[in-house]
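Worked example 4.2. Below are the chains of a multi-component assembly; read each line carefully before continuing.
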Amino acid sequence: QKEVEQDPGPLSVPEGAIVSLNCTYSNSAFQYFMWYRQYSRKGPELLMYTYSSGNKEDGRFTAQVDKSSKYISLFIRDSQPSDSATYLCATSLNTGFQKLVFGTGTRLLVSP
Amino acid sequence: SAVISQKPSRDICQRGTSLTIQCQVDSQVTMMFWYRQQPGQSLTLIATANQGSEATYESGFVIDKFPISRPNLTFSTLTVSNMSPEDSSIYLCSVNRGLYNEQFFGPGTRLTVL
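Applying the procedure described above to all two chains together yields the following C-alpha cells:
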C-alpha cells in the first residue's frame, strides 16, 4: 500500500466550477500537509501548507485536513483555465527535516 | 520562496554513460534534497545533502549509482551513473525555506536514456 494515495485523473471541469482534489494517507504520524501545483515541464510550486486537522484558506484555494479519516482535500473556487496543472499532495512527519512523501498527482483540466 | 536553478534542463543520454546535474540556490541553506519523478509515479526522495558531510540516501538508492556533492551552502550536484533506460526521469532538487521550513523545488532536469 502506498503511503499517500491520489487519483491520477485527469479531472476535467468547465471554467468557474468548484474543484475538489483529494488524497488519503496511511501513516497517522504524519503531521504536516502540503499541496503543490506542477505545470507541464516545470518544478512543483508550493500552494498550501497546513498543520494537523482543520481548514486553511488562501484566495480561491482551501486546504482541508481530517486526521481522523486520514483524508486531505484541496478546493479551488471559480476555477480558471490557468489552474490546469497537476496537483500533488504531500505529507511529512515534522518541519525540522522535511522528508516529504508525495501522492502521484491529479491532473486537472479547466476548459474555457 | 527560494530561487533555485538546475542545469541542464534536459538531456538525452546513451546507456552506460553518466550525467551530472547541478543545482544552485540564491542563498545559503543547510540541507538540499534530490528527488526523482518517474512517469506516472510520485516524487521520491533520493538523498539529502548537507554541506561538509556525506549525503544520506533513502532506501533503494545507493551512492555508487547516485553520487552527490555539496561543496558549499548554495550548490549541489547529483550524478546519475552507468545509466539505463529505467533512469529516464525528471530529477529535482529542493531546499527548506521560510517560517515553517516549507520546501521549494527547482525546475527539474528531464533525463531520457536511450
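Take a moment to check your reading of the output against the notes. The mean pLDDT of chain A is 92. Chain A has no helices and eleven strands.
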